[in-house]
Design goal:
The protein has three helices and eight strands, in the order H-H-E-E-E-E-E-E-E-E-H. By secondary structure, the chain is of the alpha+beta class.
Length: about 170
């Protein structure tokens, strides 16, 4: 009987400890979970920032952050994030491989068991294809710009109708 009560006490203690564990979405808000670089040039590294806000009532520390491969490198800020404050996590992508990409960045916080996962996506083009793409978008932008600056005069015609009164 004593063993039964001891087992029950251990079980209840374990359940209550898990219930008190802070979940990542209760403590952290990220400005976006997916950043799209669009089309980028091969071997020209790009970077972006994810803004991380501490929504808890205690200081928050980013313990580590890692990319899904060596081509993705996050730069972890060293300072704790005060309650209500925001920090920026810089993520670099080296753009070496030709292809569309969807890379994950896993962010681990001290005292929180589950990580926060964000994504960077885009398409790496070889330099000649990228230059062609850019030239095409600039040409399209120029046409749109010219069209928006051109004033179109339209004539309005007033039509008078006669009604017969009885």
């Amino acid at each position: 009987m004593r063993k039964f009560f001891m087992m029950a006490a251990v079980l209840v203690a374990g359940i209550s400890a898990n219930a008190q564990e802070l979940k990542v979405d209760q403590a952290v808000k990220v400005n976006t979970e997916r950043y799209d670089f669009g089309k980028i040039k091969q071997n020209v590294p790009v970077s972006t920032f994810f803004e991380i806000t501490n929504t808890s009532d205690k200081p928050l520390v980013i313990a580590s952050a890692s990319g899904s491969c060596g081509c993705t490198t996050p730069e972890v800020p060293k300072e704790p994030i005060a309650p209500g404050a925001t920090t920026r996590l810089k993520v670099n992508y080296n753009a070496a491989a030709l292809a569309t990409f969807d890379k994950t960045v896993t962010i681990n916080f001290a005292g929180i068991a589950e990580p926060k996962v964000v994504h960077i996506v885009g398409e790496t083009l070889e330099p000649a294809a990228y230059d062609t793409y850019i030239a095409g978008t600039k040409k399209g932008a120029t046409k749109a710009s010219v069209a928006s600056k051109t004033k179109v005069k339209t004539a309005t015609t007033k039509v008078k109708t006669k009604s017969s009164k009885p």
